[in-house]
Each structure stands twice: as structure tokens, then as C-alpha cells.
Batch of 2 targets.
Target 1
Amino acid sequence: MSLDADLAALRKIPLFRGVDDQKLRLLAFMSERTLFDAGEDLMVEGDFGDVAYIILSGQADVLINTPTGRQKVASVKENDFVGEIAILINVPRTATVTASADLVALGISKEHFFKLVSNFPDMGVEVMRALAQRLERTTREVGRLRAQLPQNG
Amino acid sequence: MDRSLFGFIWRYSKRQQLIILALTVTSFPILYMTLELPKWIVNDAISGTDFPKDLFGIELEQIPYLLVLCFMFLGLVVANNAIKYVLNMTKGVSGERMLRRLRFMLYNSVLRFRLQRFRRVSGGEIIPMITAEVEDVGVFIGEAIATPAFQGGTLLVYITFIFAQDPFLGAAAVSLYPFQAYIIPKLQRRVIMLTRERIKNIRTIADRIGETVSAAPDIHANDTARYHMADLSDRLFINYRIRLAIFKRKFMIKFLNNFLNQLPPFFFYSVGGYLVIQGELSFGALVAVLAAYKDLASPWKELLKWYQNLANVSTKYETVVEAFDVDDKMPSERLGGDESDSTVDVGNELAVQSATVSAGGSSTEVSDVSLTVSEGEKLAVYGRDGSGRTELLMTMAGLYDPVSGRATLGGKRFQELSHCTIAKAVAYVGSDPFVFNDTLRANVVYSLRGAPQDEDKDELAMLRRAEAILTGNSLHAVHVPWEDFGRAGVSDADALDDRLLELFEVVGLAGDLYRLGLSARLDEAEAKRLADKILTARSEVVRRVGEDRKLADLVELWDPKKINFSATLGENIIFGVPTDPGIHVWDCAHNKAIQAALRKAGIFDRLVKMGATIAETMIELFGETGADASLIGDYSFVSADELPLFEERLRALRAKGINGLREDVACAFISLAFRLIPARHRIITVDEELEKAILTARPILAAELKDDKDHSLFDVKAFSEPLSVEENILFGKPRADRRGARERIDELLRDTIASLELRDPIARAGLNFSVGVAGGRLSGGQRRRVGLVRAIIKRPHIVIIDQVADGDVALLDSIKSAVGDATLIIGTADPAVAKRFENVAVMRDAELVATGSWDTVSDVALGNEDAA
């Protein structure tokens, strides 16, 4: 339970890859360690949330509502970052995340994140760079998938 | 009120003035003897011959004679000073009493002003008049008659002496007095005018300052601070100019007086000298006259000082009195309470006949309106703001007197009824009822405080009453219960509280009251009453938390054998909180008792080290990253200003070690450590070893702080006064590392409180909530509801409410049910409210344009709005 352990977890997140340690440490100090019991929801699909979680220990299921009920689509574990879109823009959660075992997470709230970004614009630039990389990858993926589609006018 | 100062002094302090005069006269011979006796001692006793001497028929030898004279001298000195003491006391007391009387008279006048007047005078003007401006009057009153009598007498004696020596020289001595008597008042008159101007200017300044205080948000929003500064600066300039003009004249008077006083010696030397040379006057006589003349200067100077003082004080008196002594004041009998004869039961029919009302100024707010409201009727008076609706309602409540026509209650004109009679029958709630800086309870039972319900019984009671009689002040005791339970239809204070809770429920304030009660800190009496119930609730919470793992995840209870990771380290170590809720627990680090206890527990150095680690982390996180002040302010333990300070302190720590550190620096570090909440701030890990250290320190601190008044230690079996009701019931902290703990705990508390039927007692605690200056801690809606409860609690026969229910039909319905059979008149600008009344009177442009059911008048009423 120390700041350094949290810093180590933050450093592994791609979104924060380019951000220097000092500022990540500040982000670690401002974020809150939160405990979840097995079965407790970290977030619920459709809710508006303002906290993203880095899982420090334990695991959780990612569930999506379908006409036939909730379907598990993935599971997340240590060092995974969930709900990160919520600290960037206001959108409803796209999935439900439920702890499948007792879980410890580091919660980063939108408010804290934005305060840091507005204090340190270079941090924003690094986050933007990471997002752009992700966008580039996604675009390429979409292009590749589109090429695979049968040509039917 | 007497328009002149002397009229006032003579009317109310004739006896005191005569006593002062008599004491002054008595002091004369004694004073004379204390001057005379030393001459006897020197001439007769010491260098005298032919002993024994005869003194009051006793023969005395030289030594006894000397001793007797010396003791007589001692006795006279004592007597002289004793008389002076008594004289000064008498002067002081009579001055203070007169000042008290004057202030009370002025305040009484304020209460007798008609409401219209308050549109023209402001508190800012009235306050300095009653407080500062009359202050000098009190000081002067003791001197008013005695000084001119004493100094004038002295002067007369000396002048007589000079005349006796030589009439011609006597005439020379007083020759310039007529001139002085002519010119000085002339100059003084100008000073009086200027003093008046100065007083008015100071009043304006007071008024402007008062406005600035109330208008602060508007000043900032409109960026007009510079304008106001320029305005006040100009006022201060005017003040300076007036003062300068006063000084010029005042010192000119002094100059003239001194000059004219020193002129006669010129005549004495020239004319007197000539006469001596000519042999027409003896040399001895001239010397005696010169000596006597020198003595004239002092009483003359005193007289002049007194005269100037008189001019100044009576100007102040007159300018104050003319502001209060207005012709249209209400007769004081109308303010009398139950004991006055004017209280009668007149019936409850309310009527205005051809009433025309002006609310101050030349405009007419209500013009020729006739309206009768019979007992039990429910009537809506519909009209936009400015239609005369409010003024009509206030007239019907007896607050405005019509300039023509009649306003009657039970057929009697309001002017003929005492306020007591009217207030018993009628309750009025305006759109913004005034809320006093007191508790909620005091504000709502305000309407029951017509007269004291008990006798003044404390040790000062007799004296208080005697003084009040001597100074024409109020004979009512203020520190006794004033609440008339009978008027509220209840038998005692408890029943009254129950009734208040009912009414708060009716007006929709019950939820607010409960929340206020939860966050309230109970005073000693209330705590005693509720402690048992709260402790029961606490044990219930402890039980449920113990049984339910889900709840245990939400709250960390105070357990002497465990660290509370969701609370500050300070609370954990002291295992208590400061008694003064205004002090943070981390400020305790600067408390001497805590420091001693920490040392005794052997944890002092360790905490300093922890504080140093925190300081280092803060500097690293916030100082070195170049974070801005707002980020630091929100998250750091150390403010932006303190960061460099702590860098210095850390350097000192590194250089000198803990033992070399100044006490206050060491405590600053401890204060940082005290702020740490282990579950939230992960700067320091509370490992088993630290846990043990803290838990071992706790009982030692507890023993040390047992009798300490500044700290209240946690005890599961005792109510803790510095904690709120809620904190007392929960007896722990919501877990810092659980999401939504706060909300779910509220639920737990709600359940527990409901199951123990604690809701009412807690709401009752909410009645003790202090509402702040002018009710500033309440919202506008809450203030209006407080006004409603205040009106209904006294069970009036007629309830007149202006605009309170607009936009809140539910509230209107509850008001209707709360007033029951009583007459209800509601002023409104909301058609939805008017619609709910069978009878609606429509006001427009100061006239009553329609009455009838809403269906018949709605065209007129709403047409009015369309036209607007």
C-alpha cells in the first residue's frame, strides 16, 4: 500500500506511457485506492461514470447487455485499465464490469485527471499522442477488415 | 422629547444636578481651609509666640498646637478628596443614567416610527446616532450645572476682590469681558453650524458603509469598487474640510481669548503704574490686583471650555433629537403589552372602507379600496407586484394606516387598537419575513414573545429594576422565558416543540429540520436529554455493523484496540477530537497538553519523522513539479506559501536532528502527520509495527488528557459533544477506500433512526440550528416557511400571507389545512394560487378592479397581465 506501488501500476498503462514519473506520482497521490468485493460492480453499462480504474489485484468480468441478458465478453486482471473513456469524454459506460474475485483498484477521477492535464499541458500532449496511436491502429484495422468484406456494390 | 439639551437635563436630573451643586458648594470652604491652614501652621504654630493658645476653648502648648493643626490639615485633605470622589462618582452616575435614558428614548422612538418612515431612514444613519453621537452628552451632563456654578463663583470672588482694592482697576480687569462675550459666541455659532454639517456627513458615511456591506456581491459583480472608493474618499475629504474649518475657528477663539486676557495687565502696568507714581494708589494694592488677576485666568478659561463643550454637545443633542422627534410617531400606549388597558377582544371581521394608502413618498399605492372579509372567509388578493396588493394586505394587517378612509378590525379602527390586540387576532407574513440571528426555534416562537412569562429572579434583579425605573427604561426582564405557551395552545416547552415539529411538517420543512438535526452539535442540556437515545442508536449501529459484513465494509468504527484507517492519524493517536469544533484535529499538534502527552507516550520523535517524510513528499509532488496554487490548495497538506517554509524546516531537521529542532517546527511536522488518512494518502504505510506504536500510545495519551478541557476523547459509552449527532450515532468513519460508502451509510442511519423512533428528537435538535445573520444560512424558501410557522404557531384568527405560496400549490394546501377555521387572506401574483380560492379580489394600478370567483374575475385579472 504505497505510492510507489501505485506509480508502478500507472506506468504500465499505455495512455500514460509518455508522461514523466514525477507527474504520474502526483496522479497516483490524487487517485484513490478502492476495494471491491467479489460480485460488486465497478461500473454499470449505460451509467454515466467519471472514474476509470486500474486493477491492482484481483480480476473482473466485462459484461455486455444483449437481448438474452448479460453476456460475458472478456475478463480483466491486474494492470488492466477499465473505463478510461469516461475520464476523457462524457459517454455512458459501454459495458458492465463486475469483480469476479475480491479486487483492489486505483480509481482515477475525471476531475483529478483534468486538473492535472490543465496544470501540465505536456501531460495532455502525451495522452493525445497515445490516443492518436490507438486511433491510427484502429483505422488501419477497420481498413483491413473492410478490404476483407465481399465486394457487393 | 425635549428639543433643548438643558430642557432634557433639567427635566430628568434636577435632583442630581442640585446634589452636585451642593457638593460643589460644600467643597468650597474645605478647599479654602486647606489653603488657609498651612498659613496658620507656619505663622502661628511654628514661628508663633505667646503660648498657650486657645483653640475651640482648649488651651494648647506649642507642640500640641502644631500637631492639632497638622491633623486638622490631614483631616481636611482627606475630606476634600472624599468630597471630590463622591462628586465625581455622582457626576459619572448621573451622566451615565441620563445617557441610558436618552438612548432608550431614541430606541423607543425607532420602534414607534411608522413603517413609511423606514423607507427614508436607514439603519446606517440611526445606529451612530444612538451609539456614538450621544456619547459626549453623558459626559457633559455631570458638568452641566456644577462647572459654570463653581468656576463662575470663583471668578466672581476674584473680581469682587479686585473691585474692593480699586474700582478703577476692577473696571480695567473686566473691561474686555463684554467684548469677549460678544465676539466669542459669534465665532462659536459658525462652529456649531459646521459641527452640524460634520455630524450629517458622518451619518452619510455610516450609511454608505452599511450599504457597502449589504451590496458587496453587486459591487463586485458590477466592478464598481472604484466608484465606491471614490465616493467614500470624497466624503472623507468633506469631513476633513469641515474639521479644518472648525479648527480654524476653535483655535481663533482660543487665540482671541488668550490675547484679550493678557491685555489688561498692559493697563495695570501702564495706568496702575502711573497711579502709583502719582501716589493715588498704593504699591501693595497694585501687586495684589496683579496677583488676583492672574488667578482670574484659570476659571475664565474653564468657563470658556465649558461653553465650547456646551455648544458642541447641545448641537449633537439637537441634531439627534430632531431626527427622532417626528410628529407622526405612534402613541406609546399602542406598544404596551397585556397589562395595558388598551387590550380588548374586538371580533374578527376585517374591513377597509374607501381606503387610500401611501407607503411613503408622494405616490398612492392603494386608492379608494373597500373590501370586507368576514370571519372564517378564505380570500385571495390577486395582483402583480406594484399593483398595490402588498400595501392593501399590510393595511388589512394594521401595518399601514390609510391616509384617508378606514381600516378596521371588528369595526374598530386599527389606530385605536394596541399592537397587542392586533397581533393576537392577526398574523402577517410578507414575502421576505425577517429572520433573526438566532436558532430556528427562537425564530419561530418569536411570535409568542409578547411579554415575559416569569419574574426576574437572579441576584441582579432588584438592582436592574431599580435602575430601569430611575432611567425610564423597560421594566421587563429579558433573560426569562417569554414564550407564551397558552397562545400556542400548549402547556409546556416540550409540547411546544412537538407542535413546532408538526408545523414544520405542514410547511414542508420536516426533512430539512431532520438533516439540520443530524449535523447539529448539541448543547449541554440537549445532549443530556438525547444522549441515551443516541447511545442506543450507536449500539444498534455497532451491532448491525458487527453482524453484516457488507456494512462492515462501509464503516470503520472507533475501536480502542484498532487503527481506524479511514480517519486521520491525529484522531487515531488522540483517540478523540478537539472540544472546539472550529479547531482541526491537526491543529492539536500545537497544543501544549498534546505535545507533553506525545512525549510521554514516546511517540513524539516518530511523528516528527513521519511529518518530515510527508513534507518531503509534498515538496516533491507539488513543489518540484511546478503545480499551480489551486492544485496545491485542493490536494496538498501544505499550502503554496508554506512549501518553501517546509523546505527550510527540512533543512533544519537534517542539520540539527530532531533534538535540535525548535519546538514549533517539530510541531509543524507533527501537524502534517496528524492530517494523514492512511487509507487515502498512501505516503506512509501503517505497518504492524507503527500500528503497535500508536495503540500503545493511546492509553498513555488517554490518561494524560483525561481531565483536559480542550479535547474530548472517544468512548463508546459516552456522548461526545464536539461531534455532530450523526457522527455520534455512527461512531466511526465511512471507509475511505469504498465507493458510495457515504450514501449507504445514510441509509443505515435512516433505518436505525426510524426503528428507534429517534427522528423526532433529532428534528428537535435541528430546532437549535443557528440560522446566521439575517437567516443567511437558510434559503429564501426556508425563510418564508419559517415566517409561516411563526405566524401559525400563535393561533391567530386572521392569517394574512403575501406571495409566500406562489408557485407552490402544495404549500398553499397545507397552509389552508393548518389555519383551519381562521380567516385566510393570501396575496398572490400566481393564477394557479388564486384559482384555488372561491373568492378572489383583483388589484390593479392601486385599485380594486374586481371581486368574485376566479371564473368571473380571471378575464380582468389576466387581461391585466396581457396588457402589461
Target 2
Amino acid sequence: MSADWKGAIDCDVHPHVPNIDALKKHMNEYWRETVEVRGITAFESVAYPPNAPITLRPDWRADKAKGRARADTDAGRTAAALMDRHGFAHSILNCLYAVQLIRDEHMAAAFCSAVNDWMRAEWLDRDPRYRASIVLPLQNPELAVEEIERCAADKRFVQVLALAMGEQPLGKSHFWPVWKAAEKHGLAIGIHAGSSYHHATTGSGWPSYYLEDYAAQSLAFHTQLGSFIAEGVFVKFPKLKLVLIESGVTWIGPYLWRLSKFWRGVRLEVPWIDRSPIEFVRDHVRLTIQPFDAPASGETVGRLMDQLQSDEMLLFASDFPHWQFDNDDMMPVGIDATLRKKILIDNPLATYARLV
Amino acid sequence: MPLDDPMGPAITTANGKGSAAPNRLAVIDGDIHPAVRSMADFKPYLSKRWWDHYETYGMRRKHGSSNGEPYPKSAPLACRRDAWPEEGGRPGSSLRLMQEQHLDAYGVEHGILGPLGNTGQGEMNLELSAAMCSATNDWQRDTFTRPEKRLKGGLVVPYEDGVASAKEIERCGADTDFGQVFLLTRSSEPLGSRRYWPIYEAAERYNLPIGFHVFGTSGHPVSGAGWPSYYIEEGAGHSTSCQTVVTSLVIEGVFERFPKLKVVMIEGGFAWAPALAFRLDKVFERLRSEVPHLKRRPSEYIRDHVYFTTQPMEEPDDRRHVLDIMDWIGWDKLLFASDYPHWDFDDPFRAFPAGVTTEQHRRIVAENGKSVFRLN
């Protein structure tokens, strides 16, 4: 592949917290002691089993024989694999350390702060091309707002991060103080695939296989999108941008046709929604392109892109280090040069106000 | 209506009967909802023990409401305002009105019933669930399918108890009055789980398809994202539940184990299916070592085993988009359904966008159902 990636903005890169000691450095004495006295070893979820094929591309895995750690634990190696190799302008870090699993909201806030400060020290300070999302203790919206206020002065944070599966749908007014703070600071809201596992991962309970958990992520995005629209978040906060990260793109058109048809039928229930859901999505919602959920057929992809009825909705993402593609095949077939440039550069710039 | 379709929609005359144009399609309607006038209609079909139990404790499902809905509908009982019988009772409870207003008016040759409400499905007391399901099937037969041969019953089973469900299929499955086994999408565990396999084994044996109709009370929110606030979200979310069902059936290996099984996804629309198949194929490519019981790609199982009723039709601004979807699913896999007597009713002659050819329309409305539902 000799495709030109220069200047691209990679909107989904995952730095991996190597161990709890890395976070302890960024905790106050009380929490350091808590971690030690209570024997807390980690908060890691089952979302990415370390040896599952999807979790790490083979060339980014740890290699014990060579004494090499996994590539996503190191800012330099990650930069080499992405920004150096391809000439990307920026990589946006979405740390998936599982702070969402924590039931104690104070502990969640302490771990979020530690993760955010770890990203600053070990990633953002190491390479000026990195940008990051603020990890939030959404267990308690007040604490989440405090974390935004604590981090927002650092312009390298361009987004706040939530997972697709939490306690309750993210459009509910319970979370509005958080979205208000995000809007105030020009931070996009990123919802990433993943779960707090406070609910089963499907609407019919827990499935048998990991594959089903991963597939079910897109269904949680259906719920989140419906929630943001029906609750009127975009009416209340008209400057917000919502980015749906790591769960495909081809599901959104069909869901919006259904949602918009229902809206025509039952809009008496949500009178604050003064436009079709499709219009809100075109103005406010963006999706990252990996994993791309379509066959490798240019003709089919072309038709699917037409369903979006917009060339502004898709954002480039490598989803490093997850194994979504081989070699440098990060862009699906069937994307023409004009759309490609929008996905790589223009759309991310228009989405992340703090990038420019 | 398709632009090139010479057959117009039914013309309703002053007496409520449809016109009898000789070249009208003989419609197969995959989703008609019969109803009881009141719960007393079930009494003759329940033992004293279970009637007394019902009278004393009522029904208990995993949503906590004994009367009323957690997501109130946008119309009483979510029904068409013109579907309330003059003689009283709920929409769907009058065979006479159903015949006049729907079967005759639209030239329905076969209508497949899907009983909803207090049918025993999802009831937490499994013995009560089984007794109510049996009562529902017997009532359905006496009230609808025996007097009206155009109607075929939906064999309701107490699906949270797979063994009891198989027994109910044994009890009724040989009766040609039943055209499908009827389940709801929101079950307590994903529907590919082994606890439900006795249902699939029995259905396959009796050559009955499984109809998975939206709704049900799993006790879980519609997805892992939690409980939404509004009926619009609940309604739109049914397509999400359908995807949970199809994913589970495919990935847990139901179609490997029961290769002759056919399933019909009812009232969840269909436009979601290609994106789901693309997604499952993509994930399968990477994670197939976890599911070695699957011999083919997920999309291939879907293509061979899963049918979709079309109501409520998705309506994109550009109709070519839904035509692409229908193309990808396969014109042999789509089945017309009206959802009579509910408010979001689809008309067999008006629901389909221009661009659906006469032949494609004929297959969806009058042909495909013959090889799916057990219509003799």
C-alpha cells in the first residue's frame, strides 16, 4: 500500500495501562494506600481478553523471547506504528482501562484522575502529536463534571469518553451536567464500545460467547443514539458533537429510518423533537470507521455510503492495537478520493473543535 | 403500491366488503393479532386450580406491572381507532370484524395469528405459564381457526421452560390449524441458549417455523446500555431485540444442530439484517476459533434460515436504499405482514415502495409465505 495518509487524524488509538503501579504514581496518599492495603491489583474487563485475536494485531503483541512488551503500552512504539509510519497528524487516545467496572463512585473518580494524569505524563508529554479523551467517572455526574473541569485547561484533551453500556442510557437528564460541561469547553462526547457490565450485554441476558458480546456492542449504540435524540440532548446543547467509536457504521442508516418513522407516528410523546432524527444525526453524530462492517466490495460499500446521505459523518480510526485489518488496509474499498480526504482530515477537524 | 402493479388496493364498499377484482393477489398475512374480549374467555380452558390461582395472584412478568404498561402506547392498546368492535371487546376479539375489515377487504387467503397479552408467555410461575399457553392455544382454535379456515394459529409455548414448551408442541403440533410456533423476542436468556433447544427440536419435527415476535419481558433493558425513557425508544428498539435473537441463534449453533429449522422475525422490520450479517461475518473472521461448532459464515446461516416480515416497513428518504436492502436479504426471504389491528398497520398494496416489481411484490405478498408457514 502506498496510499497517502499524510495529515490524517486517527480518532481511535488505545493506550494500555501496563499495571497498577503506573496509576499509583498519579494517586494521592489515601488512594495509594487503599490500593496497597486492600490488595487491589487491577480493573481490567473481559472486553478484550489479552490473548484473543481481536485484542492485539500479531505484530503488536508482546514477545517474551525478545523481551518486548505489547506495543500499546509504549507511546514511542505506538507513534512509530501509526504517526511516524504513515504521517498522521494526530492520534486521539481512548484509554479503555475499566474504570467503569468500579461500583464505588469515589474510587472510580480517583482511578479516572489517575488514568488521565498517566496519559498526560506517559503519552501526551512524550509526543506532541497525541491528543486524548478525558476518562470520566460517570457513576456520579458531579464527579464527572469535576474531572472535566480539572482536565479541560489542557487543550490536548479533545473529547470526553463514555462506554456504550453503562447504568442508564447516556441521553437521560441525569447526565446533562456532564454534557453541559463538555459543550462549554468544546469537548466532543465519545462513546466507545464497551461495558460496565452493570447490565447483561444483550436485551435477553448474557450470551455464551465472547464473539456475541463484541457483536452486541452495536446494539447498545442503537440505544444510545435513540436516547440522545429522544431526550432532546441536541436541542438542549446545540453545539455538541457525539462520536460513536468502534462499532461499525452500516447499522446507522436502517436504524434511523425506523426511528424516524416511529417519530412521525408517536412524536406527541417527545414534543421537543422538532426535526426528524435523521437531521439531528447529520448535524451532531459521527462514527469512526474501524471495524468497518461491510463486505470487501466497492459496489456494496458505495451503496452503503449513499445510505448515510452525508459525506461528513465518518471519521478515520485505526483502532490500534485491535486487529481489525492487516498491513495498511485501514480504509475500506469503495471509498473515493474525495470522501477519503474528508474521512481522514476534514471530518475529524470539524468534529473536534479543540484540534485546531 | 408498485408503480407497475396492475392490481390496485382493495376498494372498500359501503357494506364494508372488499371488491372482488378477479386478478387480486391472494394475500398471505404473517402477523394478525387475535385478542380475548376479557380474561374470562380463557376460563373454560383452564383447570379450576389455575383459574383460581390467576384470580388470586394474577400474572407476574419481568416488568413489574400488573395493569398498565411501563411504556404507555400512543393509542389505546396500540390499536387502530377503527378496529374496536361495535359489539364491545378489544380490537382483534371479533372474528366478524376481522373478516370484514381485514380478511375480506384485502383478499387475505391465509392469516397467521400471533396472540399477545396474557397468553402465559413470560409468566414467571412456569406451571401457570404452561397452563395459560395451553388455554390460549385451545381458545385460539375454537374462536378463530376452526370457524375461519383462512386463519392459522400461532402455537404459543411457555418458552422459559423448554421441556414444557416441547410438550405443548407435542400436544398441538399435529393439528394443521397451527401455522407456526410463536415466541417473543425478549426472553430471559438469549434465544440460542440450550434451555430453548427442546422448542426447536419439536418445531423442526412438526415442520413448524418459529415466529419470533417483538415484545416480551426479559427483565433486561433492550441492550446493555440500560433502560430508555420513552415509547419511541422502546418501539425503535424492537429491531435491536431482533438482532439479539438472530445473533444468538446463529452463534450458539442452533442452525447447525437443527438444519431444517426456519425462523421468522416478526414486526421488527428488516433493514437491519444486512448490516448485522456484515458485522457478524467480520467478527467471525477474527474470532472463529472460539466457535468451532460453526461450519459456515454467519451470513450463510441467516440467508438459509431466517425470514422477515416486512411490517413496519422502513422508509428511507431515498427508496433505492430500502430496495438495496431487500436485494441483499433476498426477495424470497421477505413476507408481508399487516399487524392488524395495531396502529402501525401496513397495507399489502400500499406499503411497498415504487421500484418493487410486480413479480417481487407477488412473491412477498402472496408466495413466499407458502413455503415458510405450515399452510398444508
